[in-house]
Amino acid sequence: MMYAGSRGLSLAMLCAAAALSLAACSSAPKAPEAVFDTANKAAALSKLGDGFMTKRQYSAALEYYREARAASSSVDDVGAVAATSSSEGRALLALGSFDEAQAEYEASQDYATMSGEASALSRARAGLGEVAFARGDLAGALALFEEAVASAEAGSKALAVALHDRGVAEAARGRLAEAIADYRAAEASNLKEKRWAELGANRYALASALARSGKSEEAMKAALGALEADKKAENAASIPDDLAALATLAETLGKSAEAWSYWRRSFDGAEAGGNAAAERKALTALVRLADALGKDADGKRYSTELDKLKSAKTGE
After folding, report:
1. Whether 249 contacts 211, CB under 8 Å
2. How far apart, in whole angstroms, are the C-alpha atoms of residue 36 and residue 29?
3. Helices 157-172 and 138-151, interaxial angle, to 10°?
4. Which residues touch 181 (CB under 8 Å, ≥6 apart)?
5. Are 273 and 240 in contact (CB under 8 A)?
6. b/e per residue, 65-99, with b = 16+ CB within 10 A?
7. Which superfamily does 11-173 belong to?
8. Is there a contact between 86 and 127 (Cβ–Cβ < 8 Å)?
9. How many whole angstroms separate alpha carbon 52 and alpha carbon 58?
10. What CA–CA distance (Å, rounded) separates 287 from 48?
């Protein structure tokens, strides 16, 4: 959705741990138990990949997705191959590899057609729309998101993703009322199914659209909802952004003391998570607000922290 390092257990290690025989990897037909076991491992690997995506560790996520796809291919689980190809596309897009991402989403679309699974086809089309959006083709992206919405099953996660993506494209075109409606529809679906990370993204985008519409109080509620959802998901990578959004909205509403609190918490979370960009954003605001709130000692301390970050960035 417009949502490297050690990988832990590889597929080979997982197979060893389950004591799969060499015969299970041969050309001999697999016993039903072996097929079921492999499908479970593929699902587990995909879930691990999803976890790394949430942490924004995209290279690690990609490796897990590739192992999951290999496992699914080994037992000809066409629907699972469609899903993991789409996940690979999502990781590649996050890494900025647009051509490779498009190739994976196109493969996902092919396998989804083979499987006849509507949700898989919707996810693939939404992914192709995200690639088009990233390349600046707004009209093409919106058309693909429309197709994704139309092909998704009612109440499915795929429909929630497609609605959110369509909302992003609508907001980019200045069609804020339509974007807000799509975000709210995606929000309702994800809330019902307790998909907390996706719900956080819905509410964050909703807060932005509401703020742009001049509805700061409603935007504040949406941003608080995003923070609540991301806390439930333990989505540490997104929480500093939620807090920064709340701080910005509080300042817009003239609540400087409240904004200070949110900026401080945003800085704490960003520092703990090693998010230098979010740290700089929060520190810049804290230094500015310290002067207005008469927090001279805090202002000096945060100014020193900001100078350290700037020096680290420039290599001084």
Report:
1. yes
2. 13
3. 150
4. 167
5. yes
6. bbbbbebbbbbebbbbbbbbbbbbbbbbbbeebee
7. Tetratricopeptide repeat domain (1.25.40.10)
8. yes
9. 6
10. 39
Quote the pLDDT of residue 316: 45
Low-confidence residues of the chain: pLDDT under 70: 1-36, 314-316
Assessment of whether the complete model's pTM goes beyond 0.90:
no
The C-alpha atoms of residue 240 and residue 7 are separated, in whole angstroms, by 26
Closest-CA residue to 207 (of 229, 192, 189): 229
Q: What is the pLDDT of residue 76?
A: 95
Domain-by-domain residue ranges, the chain?
11-173, 236-316
C-alpha distance across the termini of the chain, in Å: 37
How far apart are alpha carbons 135 and 118 in whole angstroms?
26
Buried/exposed 265-304: b ≥16 CB within 10 Å, e otherwise: bbbebbbebebeebbbbbbebbbebbeeeebeebbeebee
- Nearest to residue 67, comparing CAs of 92, 47, 96? 47
Other CB atoms within 10 Å distance of the CB of residue 173: 12
Cα distance between residue 66 and residue 70, in whole Å: 6
Query: Tens digits of per-residue pLDDT, 54-104?
Result: 999 999 999 999 999 999 999 999 999 999 999 999 999 999 999 999 999
Query: What is the maximum alpha-carbon separation in the chain?
Result: 76
pLDDT of residue 315: 56
DSSP 30-64: PPHHHHHHHHHHHHHHHHHHHHHHHTT-HHHHHHH
Handedness of CA 145, 151, 154, 158 (dihedral sign): negative
Radius of gyration of the chain (CA): 22
